[in-house]
Amino acid sequence: MAVDLNDVSESALEFPDNFLLIDLCGEYDRNLSTLEQSYGVQILRRGNQLSVVGEEGPRQEAVATLKALYQRLEAGRSLEAGDIDRELRMGGSSVATPPGPSDQKELFKGDLTARVEIKTRKKLVEPRTEAQKAYVEALFDKELSFGIGPAGTGKTYLAVAVGVNMLISGKVDKIILSRPAVEAGEKLGYLPGDMKDKVDPYMQPLYDALGDFLPGKQMAKMMEEKVIEIAPLAFMRGRTLSNAFVVLDEAQNATSMQMKMFLTRLGQGSRMVITGDRTQIDLPRGVSSGLWDAERLLKHIPKISFNYFTAKDVVRHPLVAAIIDAYEAEDAKKG
């Protein structure tokens, strides 16, 4: 498509702090190159000024993103590749208000790009897409939430982050993380060690997520004191989970009976999150997924939140989104 040169113009931005400007540009102007490629503009650096050259729409978007990223640096925050990716996805205006001193979630209500952030012991976690933002809001606001979508969209990661936030802020007394150990059905007996050693490999993604939000020693102590529990779904039977933040991961591999059993564990003062990917069901042929049934049966209950993700919400390597799109296209042809 031909570019109308009459639409090409220049916007100049001045940044008072040269040290922050260096961080904004990134090593070898890497951050500026990312913005140039994303918006189809040219960004020129002249002293403490950046000039953005391009068509009106993309140019204004690039200017808004540069301002938002600089405001982030002014607030004392880091600026990493993930932060730039979030600003690109969220429209370049998600940094509008400096963070507060509280350990609580900071939710600045207003327009669609108001900030949502989750504070943990080790890091500040911010949604990188609108779907993630809506999901995090639901995790704080609803007692029972579902996160459904492909791998890499942050369903479990964000749920664990919210759980840690609620634990350290005193809103819940414990965190309980669970997964169905479907693949372990015939293999557990052949693995070395006791039951914990046998099931831990299936729980590793949950350990990894926790390790991102809590210092190692604190995490180990909390697990020793049963403040944090990580256990297979089968271990939930017969319990009432009160004053806890409970996450069921990989819920597409729970049977209908297991899902009903788990959902009815919800006790007073608890929050429950169910995450799953309907395209990755590992149950034996002929066994229906409890995630499918729960979605069908519970969708009409207003106090339960259902949040959906697509390949556009993948925040892993960009190739992951392309791979998911390719498989979804193939499934559509078969359907």
Explain this structure to me?
With 335 residues, the protein is an alpha/beta fold. The chain is built from 11 helices and 12 strands. It has helices spanning 18-25, 30-39, 56-74, 81-90, 130-141, 155-168, 195-213, 216-224, 256-263, 290-298, 318-334; strands at residues 8-14, 42-46, 49-55, 106-107, 116-119, 124-125, 144-148, 174-179, 228-232, 244-248, 271-276, 304-308. It has a 6-stranded parallel beta sheet, sandwiched between helices. Strands 1-3-2 form a 3-stranded antiparallel beta sheet. Strand 5 and strand 6 (124-125) form a beta hairpin. The protein is globular, with a radius of gyration of 23 Å. Mean pLDDT is 83; it is low at 92-113.
Keywords:
single chain, alpha/beta, 11 helices
In angstroms, what is the radius of gyration? 23 Å
- In terms of structural class, how would the helical and strand content be classed? alpha/beta
Strand content: 15-25%
Helix % is: 40-55%
Rounded mean pLDDT is 83
Biggest beta sheet attributes: 6 strands, parallel
Q: What is the number of strand segments?
A: 12
Stretches where pLDDT falls below 50 for ≥5 residues? 92-113
Distance between the termini: 35 Å
Order of helices and strands: EHHEEHHEEEHEHEHHEEHEHEH
The shape, in one word, is: globular
Which strand order do you get reading across the main beta sheet? 9-8-10-11-7-12
Count of helix runs = 11
Which helices and strands occur, and which strands form pairs?
Elements: E1 8-14, H1 18-25, H2 30-39, E2 42-46, E3 49-55, H3 56-74, H4 81-90, E4 106-107, E5 116-119, E6 124-125, H5 130-141, E7 144-148, H6 155-168, E8 174-179, H7 195-213, H8 216-224, E9 228-232, E10 244-248, H9 256-263, E11 271-276, H10 290-298, E12 304-308, H11 318-334
Parallel strand pairs: 7-11, 7-12, 8-9, 8-10, 10-11
Antiparallel strand pairs: 1-3, 2-3, 4-5, 5-6
Helix pairs in contact: 1-3, 5-6, 6-7, 9-10
